[in-house]
Write a sequence for this structure.
């Protein structure tokens, strides 16, 4: 006998919803892709389950039931670079990593600076395993010269703009972007690295770049970029979000700006709270070539402090697929970026939660309600009546990162072979199980 | 004679005193060979050596080639202008194709740091680094060490000044590691814009004033200053570089009595060094070139036939 009142129930799980301040054992009932009710365990609710078919019940005993995770920094590579990733494969990877929503960056080919390309991606995402929020380009062709038709982009569903991969070097253009986006109340996401100071840089500028004789991108390039944009944000009253914060100077600048009440938010990536730049000399692994680069221990510790005290609002992967052919080359000639959708959760558990830096609630907040708030999304909470995007986590499950199991089309991960703790048990998108 | 710890020569960082000493002593016997009328020994007969040059080079390539020929190795040269690199072939494919031709040893020069290491990951041949990016150029440093060692009978306790573009010089980096390992005291000197970030962590004395750097030193190794650096704004003019860092007769007075002048070449006479100094009786610049061949013979000999452990 199957329940008609509900499609699915998650029983025995510990529900964590930072948006609701919820953190108890509860049963989650789902109908037509929405969360119908969440109730604490009771004799009555257990009786109710007798009306359910086995297939309608997910037993989340010893598991965490959290809002579907949101990764606000992902490169899906489609259109243009389908050899590395497609919307479909990227969303499969997202589901496998516990992410039900992701934000895709506009540096495709053609780039996402017009309605047609947004529509193309949205169309591709319709049947995908994750919900895709499209981020539009700040400037036409990501050239940093003229604003894109941001109103057009907003009207078709774009939730933020960025020239990610490129800093908007011209302060006048950045000023106009922060002003113009106020009309739509969307944030400007900035890849904060001064172009001139980073020209030719392939790794962090430190004794490591000195030792290896490689061109460095100095930390001050990020700090200057962040400080300038904070000043513009304060001046214009727009909304600024700093992507992939990687330096102590940037973290401190953002902290101070927040204290002053400037409307700035920030995200950090796992590689910036895990690796330091001395890793590169150990084998010139091109998967460690990333922008901004891996920094020093002092910077890494500052990123962790920023995550702890809330200066950094979000954890994002900056999932950047590149084909094996493109990455198997000289270190300095390799394209920058590493994939991350399928490893972020395990890395957050192993390197932030297990080390005592963040609680589960804090970590989940940075991957659900915080990005949701910044981008004004209708997802990221388990509130009754909301879309049933749910991630069920096996919190202490030990696993080994295996390149052959990646669902991403690319395998450019420096974590292959790593032993992690914490893994997705099931991913539920709009009431349907998309990964288990 | 002993064995080197590694079957490749990728750099001098991490190479032990014993291994460097072994190379220097081995160099002695090959130094004798190249003074003979018949400058050839059968040491590497049947061994095929590839000189894989992704960057233009005249003297290093010729020096290696001569060293190989004098050891009776079969040599082939491969350089970017004649290779398939321009057709878009990856480094791995190029190298694997070459290895399929049964090459035993590869001498590689490339503009990217880490390429010699990369080659060890995609082929079985013994790899000798002939310069990777601004990272290392170990045989150049070894010939510098040999030249100093022959003159003074020691390296330990000598004061060596390396002058020039520290930031972009692989010769300086390899010299730093080698000299420090052998117990010499190393001073670096160059324009502040050409001293890389946190350079003092090499454990050298760092100067921007040439007179302070030269004071009481035994050896001055003068590096070529590349004109392109000026175009990139690293220093205002060649004239100013010469004024501030050029090695001239006047400045030699600051050195210890039995001083030595070195230069890895090619020289910009009148820029980083005056002709008077380059051709003076304390200059060992041409001796370096001769020693370079012998050092390369020693390295080729010591590495040849070395397989992975357990093979």
């Amino acid at each position: 006998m199957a329940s008609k009142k509900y499609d699915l129930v998650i029983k025995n799980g510990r529900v964590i919803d930072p948006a609701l301040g919820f953190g108890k054992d509860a049963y989650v009932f789902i109908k037509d892709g929405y969360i119908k009710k969440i109730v604490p365990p009771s004799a009555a609710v257990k009786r109710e389950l007798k009306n359910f078919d086995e297939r309608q019940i997910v037993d989340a005993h010893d598991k965490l039931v959290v809002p579907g995770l949101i990764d606000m920094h992902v490169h899906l590579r489609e259109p243009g670079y389908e050899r590395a990733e497609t919307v479909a494969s990227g969303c499969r990877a997202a589901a496998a990593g516990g992410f039900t929503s992701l934000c895709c960056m506009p540096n495709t080919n053609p780039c996402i600076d017009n309605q047609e390309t947004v529509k193309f991606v949205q169309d591709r995402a319709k049947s995908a395993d994750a919900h895709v929020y499209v981020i539009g380009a700040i400037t036409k062709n990501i050239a940093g010269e003229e604003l894109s038709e941001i109103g057009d982009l907003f009207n078709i569903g774009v939730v933020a703009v960025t020239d990610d991969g490129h800093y908007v070097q011209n302060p006048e253009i950045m000023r106009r972007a922060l002003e113009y986006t106020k009309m739509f109340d969307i944030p400007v996401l900035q890849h904060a690295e001064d172009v001139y100071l980073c020209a030719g840089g392939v790794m962090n500028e430190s004794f490591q770049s000195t030792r290896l004789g490689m061109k460095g991108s100095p930390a001050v390039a990020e700090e200057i970029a962040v400080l300038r944009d904070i000043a513009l944000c304060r001046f214009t009253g727009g909304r600024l979000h700093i992507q992939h914060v990687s330096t102590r100077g940037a973290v401190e600048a953002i902290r101070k700006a927040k204290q002053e009440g400037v409307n700035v938010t920030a995200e950090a990536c796992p590689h910036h709270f895990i690796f330091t730049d001395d890793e590169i000399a150990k084998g010139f692994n091109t998967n460690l070539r990333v922008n901004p680069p891996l920094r020093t221990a002092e910077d890494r510790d500052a990123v962790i402090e920023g995550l702890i005290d809330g200066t950094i609002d979000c954890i994002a992967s900056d999932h950047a697929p590149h084909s094996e052919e493109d990455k198997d080359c000289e270190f300095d000639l390799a394209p920058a970026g590493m994939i991350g959708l399928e490893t972020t959760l395990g890395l957050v558990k192993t390197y932030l939660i297990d080390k005592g830096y963040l609680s589960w609630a804090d970590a989940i907040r940075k991957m659900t309600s915080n990005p949701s708030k910044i981008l004004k999304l209708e997802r990221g909470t388990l509130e009754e009546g909301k879309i049933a995007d749910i991630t069920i986590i096996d919190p202490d499950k030990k696993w080994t990162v295996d390149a052959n199991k990646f669902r991403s089309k690319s395998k450019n991960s420096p974590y292959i072979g790593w032993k992690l703790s914490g893994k997705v048990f099931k991913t539920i998108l709009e009431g349907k199980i998309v990964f288990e | 004679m002993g064995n080197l710890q590694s079957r490749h020569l990728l750099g001098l960082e991490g190479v032990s005193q014993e291994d460097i000493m072994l190379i220097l002593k081995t160099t002695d016997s090959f130094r004798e060979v190249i003074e003979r009328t018949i400058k050839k020994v059968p040491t590497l007969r049947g061994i095929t050596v590839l000189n894989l040059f992704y960057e233009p080079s005249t003297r290093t390539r010729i020096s290696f080639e001569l060293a190989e020929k004098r050891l009776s190795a079969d040599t082939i040269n491969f350089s970017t202008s004649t290779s398939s690199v321009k057709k878009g072939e990856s480094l791995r494919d190029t190298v694997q194709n070459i290895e399929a031709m049964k090459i035993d040893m590869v001498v590689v020069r490339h503009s990217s740091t880490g390429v010699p290491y990369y080659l060890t990951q995609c082929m079985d041949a013994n790899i000798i680094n002939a310069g990777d990016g601004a990272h290392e150029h170990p045989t150049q440093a070894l010939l510098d060490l040999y030249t100093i060692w022959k003159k003074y009978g020691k390296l330990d306790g000598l004061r060596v000044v390396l002058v020039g573009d520290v930031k972009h010089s692989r010769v300086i980096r390899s010299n730093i590691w080698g000299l420090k390992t052998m117990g010499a005291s190393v001073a670096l000197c160059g324009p502040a814009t050409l001293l890389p970030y946190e350079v003092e962590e090499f454990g050298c004395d760092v100067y921007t004033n040439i007179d302070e750097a030269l004071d009481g030193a035994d050896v001055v190794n003068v590096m070529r200053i590349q004109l392109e650096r000026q175009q990139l704004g690293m220093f205002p003019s060649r004239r100013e570089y010469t004024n501030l860092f050029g090695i001239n007769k006047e400045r030699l007075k600051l050195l210890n009595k039995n001083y030595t002048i070195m230069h890895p070449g090619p020289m910009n006479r009148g820029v980083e060094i005056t002709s008077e100094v380059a051709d003076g009786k304390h200059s060992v610049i041409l001796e370096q070139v001769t020693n370079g061949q012998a050092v390369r013979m020693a390295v080729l000999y010591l590495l040849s036939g070395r397989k992975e452990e357990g093979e």
Summary: Chain B touches chain A through 25 residues (CB under 8 Å).
